Amino acid sequence: MSVPHPSAALKGGAPVPLILKCTAGSTGSAVFFCFGCVVLFAHAIDPPPWRLHNALMNDASSPLVSVSQAQRIVLDHVAPLPIVSVGLDSALGLTLASDIACDIDMPPFDRAMMDGFAVRSADTGESGATLTVIDHIAAGGSAQKELSTGEAARINTGAPMPSGADAVIKIEDTKWTADGGAVELQTAIAAGKNVCERAEYLKSGTVVLETGTRLGPSQIAIAAASGAARIDVYRRPVFAVLATGNELIEAGVAPQGAQIRNSNSPMLSAFLSDDGVDVVSLGIAADDRASLTESIKYGLQCDGLCITGGVSMGAYDFVPEVLDACGVQVRFHKMSCKPGKPSLFGTGPEGACVFGLPGNPVSAMLGYWLLVRPAFAAMQGRGGELPKSLVAKLDGKQAAVGDRDSYWPAKVESDEGGLLVASALSWKGSGDPFGMGRANGWIIRHSGSPAVGSGDSVEVILLSRL
Ligand code: AMP
Ligand code: MG
Fold it and tell me: Are 293 and 325 spatial neighbours (Cβ–Cβ below 8 Å)?
């Protein structure tokens, strides 16, 4: 399948064809399913990559970095993307690159906040009054007459107040007289009631959204209300997602033998899209150098490339070697956390950020959270935006932690007193994505921490934006 590279249009160049592939295999001869086609695949047994293996095992050539060091390295290599001007309908999830000021007083006129009658409060007395109705002002309309003593104007929510009036009495508190020419008020009303004065919210020229603000639905509403139909934002990044592994098949295929469904690509694509990134899916690459090279080369044309699998110590974990051959400079390979130790980060010859995440789905998910998401934020001019950690009371027990920070899927809720409580969910390790189905956060336990029990404080990060 050939598709134009989404970033090509954004960069102003001619679309570059990207070939999306889905290949999978395993050692020996086997039958594989590729988008419904059945192919025969024979994998040659490669000699084990001893040199690479030994280099990886050697901490001096590939030192284990802490999570915070890894995040610093990523942030040191990510620059904000160019600033572009976009319409509001293309701005969701992007970040403002210049302040937005409101171009008018808001509201721009004294405005009725209720359907009812505009009155002079002084006319309403203690026990109600009967006022002659001289006008009807609808939203978008204008008053035809000034209100004098003893007069009222029918008015609708959002309509401009007639001069002379200083309050709106809501329709529920009124009754028309039998001839329909006057209104009887059921209650008195104070000056200013149900009226929003001109500039009560803000004055023309007030900055309403600052550079660096991420645009969600409410920020987009504010920009629209302020007359900013086109706004300056950091260009939307394009990330490629590549799953690797001879054993992988796509979700719609029934596994045969030792095949495993690719859940990482849909997960990463979903995370990226939810964060506001354009995603190019590169499908599945087999564990061979040629297949990986082809896919990685495509991915390096994007702003980011997320690869899962093939970064550990296995005989067929060729990703680091192929990245090197494709000109990627690996900045770290191995992070001191559990799960996720084999995680890798590098930069492509043209600056693409390359993430090599372990294939185990929970490790890949954690890697997205710890590394990929902060990189996306930095591309959007929000460098330094790291997962926010909060303190919660633990419900359950957690063993003492070894020499790597440990992350545990958790359900984080607030108790009756409004305090956060984190319950560790049962899972069978990083290959088991099913425990994550109920998780909305991670419990973080730092290396060397002692065992903890119910009621103890633990650090958590939430799997949703706060
Ligand atoms: P790797 O990191 O390639 O050694 O893979 C570690 C484990 O994760 C293996 O059991 C793989 O089958 C599994 N795995 C790798 N990639 C994926 C994927 N895209 N979706 C689900 N599981 C995967
Ligand atoms: Mg693999």
Answer: yes
Tell which one of 27, 308, 341 to mutate to probe ligand 1, the residue whose CB is within 8 A of the most ligand atoms. 308
Confidence at 433, pLDDT banded by 50, 70, 90: confident
Residues 6 or more apart in contact with residue 145 via CB below 8 angstroms: 134, 135, 153, 162
Average pLDDT over residues 311-334: 96
Residue having the nearest C-alpha atom to atom 16 of ligand 1: 359
The DSSP result for 77-101, as a single string, is T--PPPEEEEEGGG-TT-BBSS-EE
CA of 260 to the centre of ligand 1 (A): 8
Is there a contact between 6 and 278 (Cβ–Cβ < 8 Å)? Answer: yes
Q: How many C-beta atoms surround the C-beta of residue 336 within 10 A?
A: 18
Ligand 1, CB within 6 Å, residue ranges: 243, 245, 247-248, 260, 262-265, 308-310, 312, 314, 358-361, 431
Confidence at residue 327, expressed as pLDDT on a 0 to 100 scale: 98
Neighbours of ion ligand 2 (CB under 5 A): 245, 309-310, 359
Atom 23 in ligand 1: residue holding the nearest Cα:
359
Q: How many angstroms separate the alpha carbon of residue 317 from the centre of ligand 2? A: 6
- pLDDT value at 465 more than 60: no
Position 61 confidence tier, pLDDT thresholds 50, 70, 90? low
Domains and CATH numbers, the chain: 2-82+235-379 (3.40.980.10), 83-105+201-234 (3.90.105.10), 111-196 (2.170.190.11), 389-462 (2.40.340.10)
Q: Which residue from 151, 189, 186 is spatially nearest to 167, judged by alpha carbons? A: 189
Q: Provide the mean pLDDT of the chain.
A: 88
CA of 407 to the centre of ligand 1 (A): 19
pLDDT above 80 for 128? no
Q: How many CA atoms lie within 13 A of 92 on its CB side?
A: 7
Distance CA 57, CA 313 (A): 8
Residue 380 has pLDDT above 90, yes or no: yes
Which of 58-62, 295-299, 390-394, 423-427 shows the lowest per-residue confidence on average (mean pLDDT)? Answer: 58-62
- Taking the CA of residue 311 as reference, the ligand 1 atom at the shortest distance is 2
